Amino acid sequence: MSIPRLLTIAGSDPSGGAGIQADLKTFLALDTYGMAVITAITAQSTRGVAASHPLDTGLVAEQLDTLLVDICPDAVKVGMLGSEETASMVAERLAGPLAGTPSVFDPVMVSSSGARLLTDPVSAMRELLPLVDVVTPNLDEAAALTGTPVARTVSEMINQAEQVAALGARRVLVKGGHLSQESAAVDVWWDESAPRLLESPRIPTRHTHGTGCTLSSAIAALRPQRPSWKEAVRDAKTWLTDTIRGADDLNVGNGNGPLDHGVRLRARR
Fold it and tell me: Annotated catalytic, 208?
């Protein structure tokens, strides 16, 4: 039996709700084999990020290069990079040994609690945009990348998706889960055809820790199993909704709790 091999390049979340921990849970839940290159160590819980320490770029490069000599991933998810030097190194690998490998980039710049995770995030993030297949900014990240105010309407989200594409991104998914005035969770998908809206039910819960990491890793995991990026994004969003719907039953932590990555696995029993 052979299943897709998925690689995440991201930071570590000891609470298990985001970062490489969320990515690996997602890869397993979606029937793929997960691998991880760690870029940074964080001290965080469901209550927020207390500290973030990037690993030395040489060590990150050694992890990645050693892995690629032995295993060729079927898709790659890039998340928190920790430093501008590591971002540039990853860009080199995406243009080199990983060229042609389906890739999803979640441009993590600031944690949900407001902790800054890169000293000069915009320039580092923009370097990667032309090298990946899909970039998945949330509202704050799309605003930072485009130098515009945070979108308050779907029309503004569409405009920012087009601006991110103008920076070199091939496909853009602007995540609008925090667009509070919308009755549904609305994301904007932009590709070479036209922008389109992707809607899902808005689940009333505060337990959404790791939503961005989980969605981007789900898209990466499903791409080798779907005929197109559009279908991978559609099915990833549906699966994400299920994980949010099950989040209240986990009872993990005293803050913004994690999603239930295993919700469908338990349903199979």
Answer: yes
